[in-house]
């Protein structure tokens, strides 16, 4: 171990607040002393500074350097040439100028989706968007995210934005003293709340479960995995077929209707369109009553259980939760809308600890009280270009320029993108059907990626600029539902020639004659003090301690107030006329004239059951009999720091672990620790088997985020030898309404892998040419 060069300095991350000391190349990360349950992912940061796959210098792909910009199928396989920053800046500035002059701003795709790192100033997406707006005048953008693609489009039509209805109200607190029954679709796996966008100084969720358990709250879990609620919660576990939650909810609604257990007064006063939904549930509109018996055949859940549960839901203070995963699937809009409807039928929306909650437990800070002052925010400028896509339609866009598609009532056309610019995300992690994405990435003239590490996305780029990690720069850490603002102090010198996004974009802006527009004449430090000022003023206005920036910096952290004002749903409950919901009618829309007016055949005017194409009840089982759940990793954030100790420690023979039921394993000769191959028509990957009976028999589970490592294996063709499930997931939108990602579920088969185990290449740099 090298010489200690720093004492512990405060810092923050999506995994929580911590302090960091450096010992030569090694980092030592210690959780914030106030955090009751530090994230098990934090130790990955110890290995963040100088892994083999760190990028230390600007790189240009051999083929691009030799042949110039243009479509090229050798992306992802080609060697890279290390170049000076000057040379990289010149090439990139010229290419940006060429694309905008020859085509248009719409030809530059700066969507750049991704979680990047915590930090309010060096936030890569904010930086790149600000750069593209202020220097080029705009870019083709992406809207929405992978997390909530379906929910975030349907919610404003029928309930109000998720931001308003979900993020701006405390949920856990009122649950502690009021909730009697939690009905959870998709669960609230503790692993998921160990991560929070922007930071978390107080991982509170395990503590909340303890207290709810002590109070004897009844938990009912609908999920293919038992671990989607903490094991010590004595939850009743219903491992229904994945993608059938809507059918169960409709059948619960049927029981409430026929047994007259619903709150007709609430429906009349606070909702519109219940009559249309009731006609559908009773089978008057389509000839099929959505009875518990009907749902039993779809979801494989005994009808008697549905009846019992509906009665109990009507009798007690009930919170219905829907995880993000449940809507990251075909027709993902429906379970969200159906759950809102069910909660409305119970008449419990706006009651403390009752009603409906989206994404509670899916992510760390949801449900904690919202911060009451504005947080430091970097302005992104104005985007002068109009083109956009729903975020998960990236491959469609690159493969089919000019093709029309539907989105949220609009008829749009895919723009003709010539340059793709990414900073702070990993599309070769997040996008479905990676073979298709690789083909899509062969189409543009130029691909630019900023990355600290040789991710698969960096390997598919032409120009790769090496970014610092947060511990190599100063920043401000803060998040919308956490009571602490934290100084993220630089703990180590930047690795080799790496630079932060602000410096990179400032240099490029200089070459594009827009330096002043991008920087406004401020250094990074001056920007931080400038954006901090918004928060300071708001604190002062509330007569709270409001230290200036230097005082805040010296103190290391600052308490920010959280709000206890009535949530939008509580106000609406009390006074639906005076405090209407932000929907077209001001009420909960159980029937939406707007959505019905779009005339889609894959989304009706009320919540409805649509049979998916890839599910256990479909014809597809004859060829691919197993449902793959590709969920969030317990020991990583997405693909980040996959080479770190916590992530590596979870692997089996270096491969991503896959959960499989003993019967399914046995039928295929698979035992604990076997290497297996998972496959369908789209591709295949290798993984290491973990046998467990805490999973539904015909479901297997693998987390997302193992770095993509495609290698040719006879006779299978290209196989990801490391275990990236997006080799087999399907690239289609949730529906014409939201076009959200459907990455959570796909149909596959699994077999024992017999061949010699290929060596992993993904955590090593690609071939470099001198
Ligand atoms: N099959 C399937 N696929 C899924 C999902 C699923 O459930 N199933 N879930 C989806 C969801 S919900 C999400 S949110 C996405 C996540 O997808 P992403 O957000 O794209 O995944 P990350 O691995 O967090 O990628 C962030 C990248 O930013 C880099 N980075 C970190 N800090 C910096 C910085 O300061 N500068 C620069 N330039 N780069 C930086 C990291 O090294 C990393 O490569 O995945 C989606 N994909
Ligand atoms: N440790 C860790 N935590 C994370 C992240 C991470 O990368 N690592 N990512 C964060 C991000 S960006 C997001 S968006 C959230 C995502 O939050 P979620 O989407 O809620 O998380 P997942 O783990 O993908 O899925 C939760 C569970 O849903 C269950 N499930 C899958 N399909 C179905 C279905 O059809 N019906 C039912 N009832 N259940 C189903 C699966 O068993 C799965 O374990 O997680 C956040 N938390
Ligand atoms: Mo997400």
TrEMBL record:
What are the residue boundaries of the Molybdopterin oxidoreductase N-terminal domain, all occurrences included? 11-48
The cofactors required by this protein are:
Mo-bis(molybdopterin guanine dinucleotide)
Which UniProt keywords are present, listed alphabetically? Metal-binding, Molybdenum, Oxidoreductase
Which residue ranges are recorded for the region named Disordered?
A: 26-48
UniProt-recorded Gene Ontology molecular function terms: electron transfer activity; molybdenum ion binding; molybdopterin cofactor binding; oxidoreductase activity
| Record bears the keyword Transit peptide | no
* CDD domains reported in the protein's UniProt record: MopB_CT_DMSOR-BSOR-TMAOR, MopB_DMSOR-BSOR-TMAOR
| GO term, biological process aspect, one | anaerobic respiration
Residues of the Molybdopterin dinucleotide-binding domain: 627-741
GO CC list: outer membrane-bounded periplasmic space
Q: Where is the Molybdopterin oxidoreductase domain?
A: 54-510
Question: One Pfam match, by short name?
Answer: Molybdopterin_N
Q: Which family does it belong to?
A: Belongs to the prokaryotic molybdopterin-containing oxidoreductase family.
| Designated name of the protein | Molybdopterin-dependent oxidoreductase
Write down the species. Answer: Oryzicola mucosus
């Amino acid at each position: 171990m090298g010489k200690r060069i720093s004492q512990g300095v405060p810092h923050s991350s999506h995994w929580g607040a911590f302090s960091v000391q450096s010992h030569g190349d090694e980092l030592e990360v210690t959780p914030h002393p106030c955090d009751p349950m530090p994230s098990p992912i934090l130790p990955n940061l110890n290995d963040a500074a100088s892994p083999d796959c760190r990028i230390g210098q600007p790189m240009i792909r051999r083929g691009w350097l030799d042949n110039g910009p243009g479509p090229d199928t050798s992306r992802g396989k080609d060697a890279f040439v290390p170049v000076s920053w000057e040379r990289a800046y010149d090439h990139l500035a010229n290419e940006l100028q060429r694309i905008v002059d020859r085509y248009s701003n719409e030809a530059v795709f700066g969507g750049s989706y991704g979680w990047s790192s915590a930090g309010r100033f060096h936030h890569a997406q904010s930086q790149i968007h600000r750069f593209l707006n202020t220097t080029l005048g705009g870019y083709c953008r992406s809207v929405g995210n992978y997390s909530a693609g379906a929910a975030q489009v349907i919610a404003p039509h029928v309930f109000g934005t998720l931001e308003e209805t979900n993020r701006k109200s405390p949920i856990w607190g009122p649950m502690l003293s009021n909730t009697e029954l939690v009905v959870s679709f998709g669960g609230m796996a503790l692993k998921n709340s160990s991560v929070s966008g922007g930071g978390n100084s107080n991982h509170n969720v395990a503590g909340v479960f303890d207290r709810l358990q002590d109070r004897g709250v009844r938990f009912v879990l609908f999920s293919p995995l038992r671990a989607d609620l903490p094991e010590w919660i004595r939850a009743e576990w219903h491992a229904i077929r994945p993608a059938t939650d809507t059918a169960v909810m409709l059948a619960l609604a049927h029981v409430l209707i026929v047994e007259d257990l619903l709150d007709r007064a609430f429906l009349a006063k606070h909702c519109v369109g219940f009559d249309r939904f009731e006609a559908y549930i009773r089978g008057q509109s389509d000839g099929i009553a959505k009875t518990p018996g009907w749902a039993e055949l779809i979801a494989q859940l005994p009808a008697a259980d549905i009846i019992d549960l509906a009665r109990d839901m009507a009798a007690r203070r009930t919170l219905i939760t829907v995880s993000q995963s449940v809507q990251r699937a075909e027709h993902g809009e429906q379970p969200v809308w159906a759950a809102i409807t069910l909660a409305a039928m119970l008449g419990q929306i706006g009651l403390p600890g009752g009603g409906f909650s989206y994404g509670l437990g899916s992510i760390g800070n949801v449900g904690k009280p919202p911060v009451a002052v504005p947080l430091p925010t970097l302005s992104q400028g104005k985007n002068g270009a109009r083109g956009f896509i729903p975020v998960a339609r990236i491959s469609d866009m690159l493969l089919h320029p000019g093709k029309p598609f539907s989105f949220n009532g609009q008829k749009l056309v895919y723009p003709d993108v010539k340059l793709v610019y990414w900073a702070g995300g990993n599309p070769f992690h997040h996008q479905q059907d990676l073979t298709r994405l690789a083909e899509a990435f062969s189409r543009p003239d130029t691909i630019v990626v900023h990355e600290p590490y040789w991710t698969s996305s960096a390997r598919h780029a032409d120009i790769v600029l090496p970014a610092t990690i947060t511990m190599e720069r100063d920043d401000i850490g803060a998040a919308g539902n956490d009571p602490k603002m934290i100084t993220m102090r630089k703990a180590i010198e930047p690795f080799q020639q790496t630079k932060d996004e602000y410096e990179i974009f400032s240099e490029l802006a200089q070459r594009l004659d827009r330096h002043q527009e991008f920087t406004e004449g401020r250094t990074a430090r001056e920007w931080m003090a400038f954006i901090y000022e918004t928060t300071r003023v708001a604190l002062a206005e509330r007569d709270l301690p409001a230290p200036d920036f230097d005082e805040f910096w010296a103190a290391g952290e600052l308490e920010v107030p959280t709000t206890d004002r009535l949530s939008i749903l509580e106000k609406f409950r009390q006074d639906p006329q005076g405090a209407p919901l932000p929907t077209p009618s001001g009420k909960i829309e159980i029937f939406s004239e707007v959505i019905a007016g779009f005339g889609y055949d894959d989304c009706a005017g009320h919540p409805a059951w649509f049979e998916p194409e890839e599910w256990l009840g479909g014809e597809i089982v004859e060829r691919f009999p197993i449902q793959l759940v590709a969920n969030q990793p317990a020991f990583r954030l997405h693909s980040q720091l996959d080479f770190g100790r916590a992530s590596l420690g979870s692997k089996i023979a270096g491969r991503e672990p896959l959960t499989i039921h003993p019967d399914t394993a046995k039928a295929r000769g698979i035992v604990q620790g076997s290497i297996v191959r998972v496959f369908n028509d789209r591709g295949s990957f290798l993984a290491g088997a973990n046998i467990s009976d805490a999973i539904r028999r015909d479901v297997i589970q693998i987390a997302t985020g193992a770095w993509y490592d495609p290698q040719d294996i006879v006779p299978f063709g290209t196989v990801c030898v490391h275990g990236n499930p997006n080799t087999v997931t399907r690239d289609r939108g949730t529906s014409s309404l939201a076009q959200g990602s459907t990455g959570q579920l796909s149909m596959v088969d699994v077999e024992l892998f017999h061949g010699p185990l290929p060596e992993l290449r993904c955590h090593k740099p690609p071939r470099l040419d001198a």
